[in-house]
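Model it.
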Amino acid sequence: MHRLLRRGAPALLAALALAPHLAAQQPLDARYRDAANRLIGAALADSFAYNRLATMVDRFGNRLSGSASLEATIDWAMEQMRADGLQNVHGEAVMVPHWVRGEESAELVLPRAVPLHMIGLGGSVATPPGGITADVIVVGSEQELAARGAEARGKIILFDVPFTTYGETVRWRTAGALAAAKAGAVAALIRSVSSFSMQNPHTGSMRYPDSTVARIPGAAVSVEDAMMLHRMQARGERIRVHLTMGARTLPDAPSRNVVAEIVGSERPDEVVVISGHLDSWDVGTGAMDDGGGSVAAWEAVRLMHRLGLRPRRTVRVVLWTNEENGTRGGQGYRDQHRGQLDRHMLAIESDNGVFRPNGFRFQGSDAALATLRQIARLLEPIGATKMDPGEGEADVGPMIALGVPGLGLDVDGTRYFWYHHSSADTLDKLDPQEMARCVAAMAVMAYVVADMPESLPHQVPAAR
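Modeled.
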C-alpha cells in the first residue's frame, strides 16, 4: 500500500498543485457559495443590526451636520466598533456646514385663519424678525410663473407640483426660491417632495446659486395644505399667509467620517469601501435616512469579523458625515485618499432605506458589471440578484467620478418618499428582517470582491 502511494505521489502532487488553478476557473458564485451562505445565515439569524439602530436613534435622535447630537453619535459609533473588534477605528476630520432651523411657523390669514403644516428648507435665510405677511400666488410650472410674472412682485409664491419622481420633483425644492426671487417674490413655498402625506411636511436642501438675485426665505408645506391653497385660488379667493422663520447659517463646524476596517490578509493596501451616512435632517430620528444604511454597512463588516472571514483585501466601513446638506464627507474622503483611489476596488453605499433589497445599481465598466453579476447570483436566497447599471449614491460619487466602481443598494422604494426628510422618519417604519437582508446583501458583495483573486476593473474617468 505504501509503495503504491509512493508510486502515485508525483501524480498526487501535480493534482494538488493544479487544484488552486482549477478552483479559479470556477464561476465566482460557485467558489464563494459557502462563505455567502454563512454570511446570509448569520445576518438573518437575529435582529442585532435593527436593535443597534434602535439604540442609536433612541439615544441620540436626529443628527444634522454641526450638531452636538451628530458628534456624540460619532463618538459612540467608534467606541462600539472598537468593542466589536474592528481594526483601525478612527475619525477622519472634515469641516461641515452648520445651518440652524430656529423657530418657524406659517399661518393662513385669508380666507380663514388656520395654522399651516410647514417646515423650513435647509440653508434658507430667515424672515425679518416680525415675519412676512403677504398674498400668495399658486403656480404649477415655470410657464405658469412666467405668465403671472406681473402679479408676483411682493407676493409669496407657492409651487404646487405633484410628485412624479424624486429626481424630477426635487428641483422645485432646490431652486424654487431662486425662481420666485427673480419674479420679485418675498418668499417661496413648495409642496413637499413626497409621494404620500399625512400632514408631514418634508425638508431638504435649497440653494442660492445666483449672487445677483435676492435671497428670500424658502419653506415646504404639506401636500394637503398645498392642494387646499390651490383650490382656494381656483375659486378666486384671496390667499394671505404670515410666514416666520428664524433660520441662520453659522460658520463651518468640525466633524468626522467614521472609519473602521478588517485589514486584508494578502493585499491590505487594496480596499473595498462599504458605507452609509450618519448625519440626518433635524426632524424625526433619521432611522430610515440614513441610520439604517449606516448600521447595515457596519453590521456587514462586524459579521465578517465574527465569522472569521478575513478577505485578501481590506474591507473598510465608512459612516459619512454631511451627506444631507453638503456631501463634505464624501468629498473629504476623496481628497484625503486621492493617491490611493486606484487601489479602491469598489465603493458600496446604502442610502434609500433598509427596505426589502432587490440587488444593486452599478456605475463602472462593462467588464466589472459582468463580474458583479456573477457575484449577485449568490444572493438568490434573499431575492436580491438585481445588478443593473444605474445612478450611484452621493457620498461615494466623488470616488466614482475618478474611476472607482460603485454600487448603490437597490431596495423596494414604495414607502421611502412617504417619510423622507420628515418627522415621520422613525424606527417603526423599518422591519428587522428586511434590514437583515440588506446587511446580507452588502456583506456578500463586499466580501467576495475583497477576497476574489481577480481585481475589479476600474472605469476610465471622463476627461475634466
